[in-house]
Amino acid sequence: MKQYLIIETRDPIECRDVDAMASLAADLARSGASASVLLTDNGVFAARIGAATDALDVLSSAGVGVFADNFSLSERGIESASLAPGVRPATVDLVIDRLLEGASVMWR
User: Fold this and answer.
1) CA dist., res. 30 & res. 42, Å (int)
2) Where do the domains of the chain lie, and which CATH numbers do they carry?
3) How confident is the model at residue 54 (pLDDT cuts 50, 70, 90)?
């Protein structure tokens, strides 16, 4: 099975393309691939409970794994308890692990 990891760095309030990323990841998962998203930098703002984006709903309904970079969360004062259901904290080691597993990685 083909694996994909999409790294999203943009805040969904600043950039509406975050919804397009969610749609892409969901389409990949629906086509039978294993897709996941790593939110990093300002992208972690989408990981909060009540974030002003539908991206997390789109991702979860398609079975896409969603991770939020621990360092980015810490730098922005976002605690794990305030993450939306289904979002898991992770380190950037996730990228290396996925590359070693043969995943295609896209940085947005």
Assistant:
1) 27
2) 3-107 (3.40.1260.10)
3) confident
